[in-house]
């Protein structure tokens, strides 16, 4: 696969990904005996959507996700909630939708959000809320719209990365960048493999998605979709395996955001 | 639930000292009641009340359209006819209705989340005829998922033939909340509004996970998350024992 020379690949150390095994490939002889390190490059871009406060676009393999942030705007009032307590923090509302042409396996997706999309939206909300400083924006609401243009695997984790990029682009204060990764395991297999956006995971496998905040060293969210019953220690082991890809994505995203700054603003880099 | 800041702090501080506001231990469930076979038009039904949380579940099997009139006498023979004719497998379809609590956005969000969780709990279950699980929330005081999973699993065990269940009990949810440095299970509505993060685990009768998710607007350390998963598995096994004894007493 020729590398696209016009893209900012955002990796500081130039690792040639074509030499590394991906999920679904048979392991190369050179990697036997060593821990398999599977990675694929993310491609980030910001400011893609014009009429928003902030927007982000992430490609991970063939998976493409676009996020846009609107707000702060007037909060939704509810008769039941107490005006004082509820409005001391901003309300974060996440909308998640697959484009009708997005899915490889499911064919055309309906215009109305279905159960999977609602679940993904609430997962995104629970994952991004810990790192956002919502208390800095009382009496307001922030809307995050997440649109998946192509789903070739690792869709939810890519959406988390994209949403984080969009929120940073919008200038909202955050405690830390939230990055996510997914590992999957076919039914009957023993090893967890990193899920990449190449369409190799066609359903029928268990997956564990972990959203991690590297600097705070805390888990922002975790979702297990099991195709077979799993032992608790297998789930914990899968979460630990997700930690390294999350850290690498965190470095890539941080480097990309620093490179976006004008040259004279880059002097305050923290190593 | 409306809570002032001093009340929230009171609940938080007392849980740190392992005292809950209704006097329970941190890892103790409330008094629960399970009733079976309440509805005459459903294939099976169950009602669970866990404190003030009251859940009514109805399980209906759709008749196989290819079955002849004489085979539609009882549901058991319809299922047998379906298995002989067409081994088509259907996933279990779950619907949660919170309209008894009101029609606001919070109730709809509660219903949506519960529906997503319960659908993922029965993801591995396949039936020859379409099965519809309708969950009606009659009262809410926290811990909806645990109560709904007990009722739905008990009703499904009554409705489905034993050959389909392969002599195993259906999975149950256990939700573990984290308040400060303490873990609690079976939180009521006040405690739920004080907890920052929770882990919901769906566990089958062999102690294996079929679903696991963290929720809530707080973050967790890795070790805390692993401990909460282990606590959830332990409590779910305890729930499996209690439910098995209750169902055996009814049968």
UniProtKB/TrEMBL annotation, chain A:
Pfam families: RNase_PH. It comes from Macrostomum lignano. GO terms for biological process: nuclear mRNA surveillance; poly(A)-dependent snoRNA 3'-end processing; rRNA catabolic process; rRNA processing; U4 snRNA 3'-end processing. Its main location: cytoplasm. It is found in: Cytoplasm; Nucleus. GO terms for cellular component: cytoplasmic exosome (RNase complex); nuclear exosome (RNase complex); nucleolus. This is RNase_PH domain-containing protein. Keywords: Cytoplasm, Exosome, Nucleus, RNA-binding, rRNA processing.
From TrEMBL, chain B:
GO terms for biological process: exonucleolytic trimming to generate mature 3'-end of 5.8S rRNA from tricistronic rRNA transcript (SSU-rRNA, 5.8S rRNA, LSU-rRNA); nuclear mRNA surveillance; nuclear polyadenylation-dependent rRNA catabolic process; rRNA catabolic process; TRAMP-dependent tRNA surveillance pathway; U1 snRNA 3'-end processing; U4 snRNA 3'-end processing; U5 snRNA 3'-end processing. GO terms for molecular function: mRNA 3'-UTR AU-rich region binding. Its main location: cytoplasm. Gene3D superfamilies: GHMP Kinase, N-terminal domain. InterPro entries: ExoRNase_PH_dom1, ExoRNase_PH_dom2, ExoRNase_PH_dom2_sf, Exosome_comp_Rrp42_subfam, PNPase/RNase_PH_dom_sf, Ribosomal_Su5_D2-typ_SF. GO terms for cellular component: cytoplasmic exosome (RNase complex); nuclear exosome (RNase complex); nucleolus. Residues 29-159, 171-234 form the Exoribonuclease phosphorolytic domain. Keywords: Cytoplasm, Exosome. Transmembrane segments: none annotated. It is found in: Cytoplasm; Nucleus, Nucleolus. Belongs to the RNase PH family. This is Ribosomal RNA-processing protein 42.
